[in-house]
Amino acid sequence: MEWLVEAEAAGQRLDHHLQARMPEYSRSRLQDWVKEGHVLLNGKAAKASLLLKGGERIAVTPASLPPLRAEAEDLPIEVLYEDEAVIGINKRAGMVVHAGAGNHSGTLVNALLHRFGELSGEGGDLRPGIVHRLDKETSGVLVVARTDAAHRNLAEQFQSRTVEKIYLALVHGVVKGEAGTIEKPITRDPVRRTRMTCKLSTGRHALTYWKVLTRYSRHTLLEVKIGTGRTHQIRVHLSSIGHPIVGDPLYGAPVSKMLPERFFLHAARLTFASPATGELVKLEAPLAAELVAIIEAEPL
User: Fold this and answer.
1) pLDDT (tens digit, 9 = 90+) per residue, 7-34?
2) For the chain, what are the domain ranges?
3) Is 135 annotated in the active site?
4) Which residues, at least 6 apart from 155, have a Cβ–Cβ distance to it below 8 Å?
5) How far apart are CA 280 and CA 277, in angstroms?
6) What is the DSSP letter of 94?
7) Which uninterrupted H or E stretch holds 147?
8) What class, spelled out in words, does domain 165-266 have in CATH?
9) pLDDT band for position 158 (50/70/90)?
10) How far separated are the first and last CA of the chain, in Å rounded?
11) Which of 135, 148, 189, 248 is catalytic?
12) Which fold has domain 2-60?
């Protein structure tokens, strides 16, 4: 399939333009085709985020994605909410959300497929139902789409930033001030590819709000709200102001004897409009027992 980009499409991202021209395919599938070189812009490979100028020639050679590797597994999950469109989960720390490199079983998707049978296909063959993610070591609220229509609706809510996401984070040090905002672009660390950084001038815009809940002698419990959803956003932003999250050595925290297998970051509340009813849904997940034990411990 080939076409010339019309002048009216100037300023559009390549993947958004492809979605508009090829609505029968999910954006995730189209993005995978771009990464794999099945989409050429003026005869050359391009990034999905490239902004079009108009007049370019696009050539698409459709290709199938690898077969679904996520299989239904009988794994324990805590369901907070469900209707005909969505499922709300309290994800436990240590559980990967979906299959990826080195993680083909034991994921939340595996558990969801066993419990509910069918999920939205908009996320791609490896990520059915997944609209947003939490890091493996993060616990808390996560919403999953049951239908393609619900997935598109939720994705639009996340993109338009109408979804409220509230986290709890225990950080090292006594934070000065009662509340604050961190607005620093985030990009992949060019040296340590497993982490992100906001020390470079380049990157994607990222906005984090925080306020102090409790001060301890050597730590501070924060409520954190994110205005954007970048990879590792809360972790890298809090580390950038000198207050890494307890148990997160990747971003500068000392190795924690209190939390050897996770860090103290919990998605406490998620508020969105149900695609099924339009009504506001507020999901809350209580702190995991190991996190409660830490904030009740003395001294902290």
Assistant:
1) 999 999 999 999 889 887 877 788 889 9
2) 2-60, 165-266
3) yes
4) 122, 131
5) 9
6) T
7) none
8) alpha beta
9) very high
10) 62
11) 135
12) 3.10.290
